[in-house]
């Protein structure tokens, strides 16, 4: 664990530059706003350019399965940039959560490989049908995955409801954890089926809308049975949580950069407000938080990439830390922008909403700290 | 076979070869400690990134770890770096950067071996955060400077052979411009060192009174009036020194309280548990940030994160030690020892929680207060505009005091 590389490689820097340049052109705040108000599930043209043309959709997928054969380190860099832009694209939900769940299934199975290839090429958008607030359960502490709210009948048709699923609206395929006669499994369901209802919910985060999924005897294909479904879903949630830390880092970075820019330009009392110590110290404190957030996010990404035994600790630390840093940065961004920060017109609220949703997504900081209590042997008082 | 006349690059293998040579010629088991350290210095293995002839080999700084590991494995003595931190971390880089050849030759070797301890005469009762306001005067008298004034918060002054000193040489200049930088001989009869007892009960620091101290002009570092710029080098290195060093998980103060938590289940409460987990996460985050900084330095991209580390550890040490005293409950009401003592180094682990709690209060004051460091980050890293100043362009002698 001491050998973890916490820096960015040259290739990672290049990838960042490419993603940032695309997002600067195609995803400025005004576009994010109009996209959020459009009622569309995500920005289809942007996702095509980013996921399919640039190939980021397949970063986690091995070459031989049609992906880019990269690792969580590269995916983390993409997540940082997407966080900076609060980009409305299904990267986390399709390229990370759905792809990681499939990678935990038997990729020798034709159905799994075909779906992975389609996700990796950005031809198909997938989503893991669990509430966004779901946290991976640490192995040894219970099961690796949350209890299923969906039942599979004898024919493999699924019925049940899953609430608060990110990326379900706009997805072509849902990966649904369900319990059948022989136990827990992971099933693929096409959203085009009439027995599948994806009802968009009015979500706090305008840029990553949630939906309620209702299945009424939906035809499904089982991708993993009791032997590996739990581990696959658990690993997907762990990967998602670890990479979400990088998104949170990106969100925080944008908030600090914009706040610094604004307070340098905004004059009150005859001087830039950024020259007042009361404000300066708050921005410097945020910068400090970013320094450590970056270290924890990089450590989590590297642990996932190298399949380190320390991954559960790395992810829990990164989530417990980065989630709060992002929220703090977004809250400071609103406050230090003064009145303009409170308007619908200024993009600060998009970041605040993303940061606050991300804090709950894939486990709150408190739940990750609770997981650490078990992982690093700091037990709670008994009684 | 090679026909080029380039000096071979010093790489890790070459360093290992030189370490073996040193060990063969001076087996640690049978060599006097000081003789070994001197030989190590002369072999260029003291600080490999220093120039050849001054204890180094012009090698990359990152390769020092190779030498240190080899020597440690061979059971060789080290120079007890914690005891001579000011010399190694502050005086040496300044002497290297601004000293004459003669000064470097005379001063660096005994500094590194620890034969000559160094201290720092910077802060004054009237010049703390605003160090450039310092009032200690140095007046030219023939080939000497005559120094009068009072310095404070000087650790190791009672052990030191030399001090790095900044003093005002031109009061008619604005405060930053009339300062010069000297090497002061602490054995000069005009130097009086008095212990300064602090809230822990011990006297780790000193007040130093300078009365008619004569310093030859040959012990000036840098040009006359350039002392502030020279001091910036010193202070920059202080923050790197405070922030550096590799730490294992739970290697810092959090490890002590985590152990108590594990060993003493009867002390646990839910409130303390939540706070402990928070601090554990923050400690691990700070540790990883320190590790990341170390990796950046190793590939030659030093960032401004050094001051971030100092700030983070100051805050963490204070919060963790406060939690520890509270965790101990009834025992936390006691203190191990108020006897005035003069420790040679700060040892957070060698004493009890109450000491740690009190001593950690200094972490956000010494080496630049946390408030000043936040200003530095805001202005130098984030590029925020400075506060309006009324003291920068006025002659020092005309400033209100």
UniProtKB/TrEMBL annotation, chain A:
Instruction: Output one GO MF annotation.
Output: flavin adenine dinucleotide binding
Q: Which residues cross the membrane?
A: none
Known InterPro entries for this protein? Acyl-CoA_Oxase/DH_mid-dom_sf (IPR046373), AcylCo_DH-like_C (IPR036250), AcylCo_DH/oxidase_C (IPR009075), AcylCoA_DH/ox_N (IPR013786), AcylCoA_DH/ox_N_sf (IPR037069), AcylCoA_DH/oxidase_NM_dom_sf (IPR009100)
Cofactor requirements of the protein = FAD
Keywords annotated in UniProt: FAD, Flavoprotein, Oxidoreductase
Q: Which Pfam families match?
A: Acyl-CoA_dh_1, Acyl-CoA_dh_N
- Where in the numbering of this chain does the Acyl-CoA dehydrogenase/oxidase N-terminal domain appear? 9-120
Every copy of the Acyl-CoA dehydrogenase/oxidase C-terminal domain together lies at: 236-372
What's the family?
Answer: Belongs to the acyl-CoA dehydrogenase family.
Q: What is this protein called?
A: Acyl-CoA dehydrogenase
Q: Which organism is it from?
A: Streptomyces violaceusniger
Automatic annotation (TrEMBL), chain B:
The GO cellular component terms are: plasma membrane
- Span of domain Acyl-CoA dehydrogenase/oxidase C-terminal: 225-382
Spell out the molecular function terms from Gene Ontology: flavin adenine dinucleotide binding; oxidoreductase activity, acting on the CH-CH group of donors
Domain Acyl-CoA dehydrogenase/oxidase N-terminal span(s) in chain numbering = 15-115
Q: Which UniProt keywords apply?
A: FAD, Flavoprotein, Oxidoreductase
Q: What cofactor(s) does the depicted protein rely on?
A: FAD
Boundaries of every Acyl-CoA oxidase/dehydrogenase middle domain copy? 119-203
Family matches, as PANTHER family? ACYL-COA DEHYDROGENASE, ACYL-COA DEHYDROGENASE FADE34
Q: What family classification does the UniProt entry report for this protein?
A: Belongs to the acyl-CoA dehydrogenase family.
Name of the protein described by the UniProt record: Acyl-CoA dehydrogenase
Q: Which organism is it from?
A: Streptomyces violaceusniger
């Amino acid at each position: 664990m001491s050998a973890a590389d916490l820096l960015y490689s040259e290739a990672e820097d290049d990838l960042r530059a490419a993603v940032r340049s695309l997002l600067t052109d195609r995803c400025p705040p005004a576009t994010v706003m109009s996209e959020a108000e459009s009622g569309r599930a995500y920005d289809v043209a942007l996702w095509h350019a980013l996921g399919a043309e640039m190939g980021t959709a397949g970063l986690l997928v091995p070459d031989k399965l049609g992906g880019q054969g990269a690792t969580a380190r590269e995916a983390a860099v993409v997540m940082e940039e997407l966080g900076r832009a609060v980009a409305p694209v299904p990267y986390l939900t399709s390229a990370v959560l759905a792809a990681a769940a499939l990678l935990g299934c038997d990729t020798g199975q034709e159905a799994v490989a075909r779906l992975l290839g389609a996700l990796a090429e950005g031809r198909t958008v997938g989503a893991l049908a669990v509430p966004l607030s779901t946290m991976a359960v640490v192995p040894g502490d219970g099961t690796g995955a949350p209890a299923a709210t969906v039942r599979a009948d004898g024919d493999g048709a699924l019925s049940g409801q899953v609430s608060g699923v990110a990326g379900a609206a706009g997805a072509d395929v849902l990966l649904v954890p369900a319990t059948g006669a022989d136990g827990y499994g992971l099933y693929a369901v096409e959203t085009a089926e009439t027995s599948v209802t994806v009802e968009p919910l009015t979500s706090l985060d305008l840029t990553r809308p949630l939906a309620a999924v209702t299945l009424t005897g939906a035809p499904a294909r089982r991708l993993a049975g009791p032997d590996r479904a739990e581990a696959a879903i658990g690993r997907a949630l762990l990967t998602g949580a670890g990479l979400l830390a990088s998104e949170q880092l990106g969100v925080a970075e944008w908030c600090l950069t914009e706040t610094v820019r604004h307070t340098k330009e905004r004059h009150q009392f005859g001087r830039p407000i950024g020259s007042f110590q009361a404000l300066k110290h708050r921005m410097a404190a945020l910068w400090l938080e970013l320094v450590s957030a970056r270290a924890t996010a990089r450590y989590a990404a590297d642990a996932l990439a190298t399949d380190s035994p320390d991954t559960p600790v790395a992810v829990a630390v990164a989530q417990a830390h980065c989630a709060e840093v992002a929220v703090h940065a977004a809250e400071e961004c609103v406050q230090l922008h003064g009145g303009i920060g409170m308007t619908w017109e200024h993009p600060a609220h998009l970041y605040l909403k993303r940061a606050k949703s991300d804090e709950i997504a894939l486990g709150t900081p408190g739940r990750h700290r609770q997981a650490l209590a078990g992982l690093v042997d700091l037990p709670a008082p008994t009684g | 076979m090679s026909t080029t006349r380039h000096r071979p690059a010093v790489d890790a293998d070459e360093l290992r070869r030189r370490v073996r040579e040193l060990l063969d010629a001076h087996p640690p088991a049978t060599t006097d400690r000081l003789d070994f350290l001197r030989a190590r210095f002369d072999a260029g293995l003291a600080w490999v990134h220093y120039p050849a002839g001054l204890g180094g080999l012009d090698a990359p700084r990152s390769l020092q770890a190779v030498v240190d590991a080899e020597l440690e494995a061979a059971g060789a003595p080290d120079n007890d770096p914690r005891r001579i931190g000011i010399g190694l971390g502050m005086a040496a880089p300044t002497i290297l950067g601004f000293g004459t050849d003669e000064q470097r030759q005379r001063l660096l070797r005994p500094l590194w071996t620890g034969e000559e301890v160094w201290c720092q005469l910077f802060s004054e009762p009237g010049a703390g955060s605003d160090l450039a306001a310092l009032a200690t005067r140095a007046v030219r008298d023939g080939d000497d400077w005559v120094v009068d004034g009072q310095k404070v918060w000087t650790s190791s002054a009672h052990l030191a052979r030399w001090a790095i000193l900044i003093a005002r040489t031109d009061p008619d200049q604005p405060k930053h411009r009339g300062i010069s930088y000297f090497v002061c001989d602490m054995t000069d009869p005009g130097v009086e060192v008095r212990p300064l007892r602090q809230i822990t009960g011990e006297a780790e620091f000193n007040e130093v009174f300078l009365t008619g101290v004569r310093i030859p002009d040959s012990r000036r570092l840098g040009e006359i009036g350039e002392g502030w710029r020279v001091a910036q080098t010193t202070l920059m290195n202080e923050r790197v020194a405070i922030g550096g060093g590799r730490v294992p998980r739970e290697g810092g103060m959090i490890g002590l309280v985590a152990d108590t938590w594990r060993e003493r289940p009867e002390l646990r409460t839910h409130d303390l548990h939540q706070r402990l987990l928070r601090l554990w996460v923050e400690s691990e985050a700070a540790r990883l940030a320190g590790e990341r900084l170390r990796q950046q330095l190793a590939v030659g991209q030093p960032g401004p994160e050094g001051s971030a580390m100092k700030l983070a550890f100051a805050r963490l040490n204070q919060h963790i030690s406060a939690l520890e005293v509270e965790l101990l409950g009834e025992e936390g009401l006691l203190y191990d020892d108020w006897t005035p003592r003069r420790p040679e180094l700060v040892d957070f682990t060698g004493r009890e929680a109450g000491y740690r709690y009190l001593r950690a209060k200094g972490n956000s004051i010494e080496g630049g207060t946390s408030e000043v460091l936040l200003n530095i980050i805001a202005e130098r890293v984030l590029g925020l505009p400075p506060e309006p100043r009324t003291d920068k362009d006025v002659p020092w002698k005309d400033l209100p005091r």
